[in-house]
Design a protein that fits this description.
eight-stranded mixed sheet; BirA Bifunctional Protein, domain 2; OB fold (Dihydrolipoamide Acetyltransferase, E2P); 11 helices; 16 strands; 428 residues
């Protein structure tokens, strides 16, 4: 059986009138009107109308909606208001028949809740709103890689099975690795820092894991993170890289993805830059105006961030956090060692990224590990590399899934992940 096609649907147009074409897709609609029938066929690129009449009507036998077909026909003018051309079918091959009842309506005429759609995720991709989300995700990833490559970053891939906690934290998935204790990586932090020794500027886009029993619209057990690390850059320098990356993502998708924005029902607006920058101390003062009294060194809870988000609903940086709130590898400020050279990128209340300047002196690192009650022996491989001439460096990690929710204007990361994993979902 020949399954090839001469054209994608987006390649067909009215200027091809009289030309023979072969294309494939699935049946969105099928209407029989006497001795004539109209099929609406869609592939990943678009939709067109197929007309069947006369002796060709027997080609419709066995056809139903959502079945996959290969159609041979001739392009001709159309009187339909939604199509300026149509295909007069001479042959219809049924490549795969849809079995009814379908678990969800992929056209979207009957709405399904997100759990049912996730349970039938592959079929959900025939819903144009859902498909548009993942087409946009593709363009976002392309834009990120383009921006970072232009900034002289080199893409790397780090291990996801590791022998010790990369940031000394909890919430790790443990596993048996041929009789040894291993973990799923929650971050590429230590590896990307080591790579600045020779590659200087590196980035990674990959899945990571966090064993956190959170039941919110912004937490997942498996998530996609965009990470960079750069030698000879301070934390303000990598903040500028992050801001440029965000603006590029919004600008490029706004320009390239007009149809996807229509299907999603959300117009992508390029954010104003430069992004506002607010220090941790300024945030405490703002909260004090709302009768929220926090001491220096107190962490900002979700309720606090929501108040700040009301005051700053767009992108902004929260900078200069107390050292006591930051991981062992973060560098202090020269003029005030109680403050860190660090930042979070926020969109309203939602944290999208965290980063900062890293310690590059191995003795300082050992001392910081002990301060945080971590055993330097567990980081011996990492610390060894710092004795080989580690340049000063800074970096950040950005939650891609959260960024996608901001881009398309929804508040549940499960909508933008193909097969999300959370404490309640391990299938499909």
């Amino acid at each position: 059986m020949d399954i090839s096609r001469t054209h994608l649907i987006e390649d067909l147009n009215s200027s091809m009138e009289g030309q023979d074409v072969v294309f494939g897709g699935w049946i969105v609609d099928l209407r029989k009107l006497g001795k004539m029938a109209f099929l609406t066929i869609r592939d990943v690129t678009g939709m067109c109308q197929v007309i069947v009449k006369g002796d060709s009507m027997n080609l419709l036998e066995g056809l139903n909606r959502q079945s996959v077909v290969r159609i041979t026909g001739k392009v001709q003018a159309s009187k339909a208001k939604d199509f300026d051309f149509e295909i007069a079918a001479s042959e219809i091959q049924i490549l795969a028949k849809a079995e009814y009842p379908l678990p969800i309506d992929p056209i979207g005429r009957l709405e399904s809740d997100i759990d049912n759609r996730l349970n039938s995720r592959a079929l959900d991709m025939r819903n144009q709103k859902t498909a548009s989300i993942f087409k946009l995700r593709h363009h976002v990833l392309s834009s990120i890689r383009e921006t970072l490559s232009k900034e002289k970053f080199i893409e790397i891939t780090t291990p996801k099975i590791i022998g010790s906690a990369s940031e000394g934290g909890a919430n790790l998935f443990g596993l048996d690795y041929f009789g040894n204790q291993a973990y799923l990586a929650q971050s590429p932090q230590l590896y990307k820092e080591q790579m600045t020794i020779g590659l200087e500027r590196v980035f990674e886009i990959s899945g990571f894991y966090r064993a956190e029993k959170s039941h919110t619209g912004r937490h997942l057990s498996e998530f996609t993170s965009v990470d960079i690390e750069a030698a000879f850059m301070d934390y303000t320098d990598v903040m500028n890289v992050l801001e440029k990356l965000i603006v590029d993502v919004f600008r490029k998708t706004s320009e390239k993805c007009k149809i996807e924005q229509e299907h999603i029902g959300n117009q992508i607006k390029v954010p104003d830059s430069p992004f506002e920058r607010i220090t941790y101390s300024q945030a405490l003062d703002e909260l004090k105006n709302d009768d929220i009294k926090l001491e220096f060194g107190d962490d900002l809870m979700d309720s606090h961030l929501r108040i700040l988000g009301d005051n700053h609903p767009e992108f902004y940086f929260l900078t200069d956090w107390p050292m006591k709130l930051k991981p062992f590898y973060i560098h202090e400020k020269d003029d005030d060692p109680t403050l860190s050279r660090s930042f979070d990128l926020q969109h309203g209340y939602l944290e999208l990224s965290s980063g900062g300047r890293r310690l590059h002196d191995p003795e300082q690192l050992k001392a910081r590990l002990k301060e945080q009650e971590l055993d330097p022996a567990n980081f011996s491989d990492h610390l060894e590399s710092f004795g080989w001439g580690m340049p000063p460096h800074s970096g950040w990690g950005l939650g891609l899934d959260r960024l996608m929710t901001v881009l398309i204007g929804i508040d549940n990361v499960r909508e933008v992940v193909l097969y999300p994993r959370d404490p309640d979902r391990l299938k499909p």
